[in-house]
Structures are given as C-alpha cells and as structure tokens.
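sorry to bug you again but im stuck and you know this stuff better than me. what follows is a protein written twice so to speak, once as letters and once as structure tokens for the fold. id like you to explain what the token line says about the fold, in plain words if possible. anything you notice is useful, everything is just below.
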Amino acid sequence: MQQIYPQAGPGPQPDMAGLYAYPAGREAWVRANMIASVDGAATTDGRSGGLSGEADRTVFSVLRALADVVLVGAATARTEAYRPAQVPGRWAGLREGRPASPAIAVVSRSLDLGPGRPLLTGAPGDARTIVITASSAPADRKAAVARDADLIIAGDDRVDLPAAIAALAARGQRRILNEGGPHLLAQIAEAGLLDELCLTISPLLAGSGAGRIVQGTGMAGDAGQMALAHVLEDHGYLLCRYVRPGGPGGSA
C-alpha cells in the first residue's frame, strides 16, 4: 500500500492509525466508510462484500478500531448479516482505555430487525448493541429489544438523526463510524451531520442495476461539498478520505 496524495515519497507503509485518527476536542465526529465500483455501484449481488479487497478490509478494521460506535441502518444490518464488532489483534492497542470493540448502533424506525438477534444477544456487556428508534415504534417490539440491547428513542414518527447523534455523544460515544446503508448515509448528509467520508474505489466494473453509496433526495446548497484529504493505492484499489471543507485534513 502506498500514499499517492498528498505525495509522501518512498518509504515505509503508511501510518494507518495516524492517517485516520479522529480530530481531538470535538463533541461528535461522524465518519462514513463506503465502497463503490469504478463505475459507481455500491454492491454486487446485493451486497458490498463482493467489491472488497485486502486493502479495503485493512481500512475497515482500522476505522472500527478507532471508533466508539458503529452506526448502521437496519436494512444493511440484515443484508450484511451484522454481528457484534471484533477488532483484530494488530489494532487492539488503538482501543486502550476503551472496550475491546466498538458497539454497533442500529437505526430502525419499525424495529423490524429480522434474524438480527445474534447482533443483540451476542454483544459483550461493555459494548452492548444499541438500537435507535422513534417513539412511534410498536411498544411490544421496543420492550423486546430493550431486553437484549440499549434502546435510544430519538424522534416521534421517524428517527431524528441529530437527536440520535447527540444521544450517542452524551453516552461518551463521540467517534461515530457510519457503515451505511445508502439511505441512512443520505439522511446523515442531508442533515449536515457528515464530517468525513472514507470511500474505497474498487477496480471492478459492476454494470447496471446496483444503487449508489448515497440514495436520497439530494443535498441542498453546499451540504454535499467535500475536500480530499488523502488517497492510498493498493493493487488498483483507491482508498480516499474526504472531509468537510475546513475540517482536519481538508482545505478551507
């Protein structure tokens, strides 16, 4: 793996923990990690895993190791068969003073979690799964979820994402990693909550039919503007990091 922007010159492997470190002194920092084919597809055969490679999996592990909480939509949790997060031993030192793994936080207005019980029941006690829903969610489902996970109520008829992010920050989970899906990422960006996007471009032509990493109504004004912070390359994969203009690593 090599850093090609900003050009770092020949030398050792990039300092992954340093390149992806969260900025200090922020109440909350929302980072998204996504992958897309070279022609813009977010999935192959309905899942993102078919686009991945070794370099992307390395970044995935580093970002999880650095995060306090992994935020994901219920549909993605079902499709990708989410389970409690695990951090490989090589990155375990990044968790010093914190639980050995970040908690998973699932956003679901209806609490239709499908066969997601292992995600709820298999989490360690110091990183219990969190389910974020609206007050209008069925009472019986809220009670069932609360038996195995931490329940956050944010919003009335739909999940209020600014309130959800504030609730996570109030719990001390300020370094927030969003792993999708495209509709949740769109809602985060449209609400002006997205501070950073880590995007892997896979050297694969996926063809038509697949959606994009963001699927929503569109960004108003400059809400979608991002500044390129760095690019890594490995066997044709481009690992790009974008931040809000003026943010750490971005231009004003």
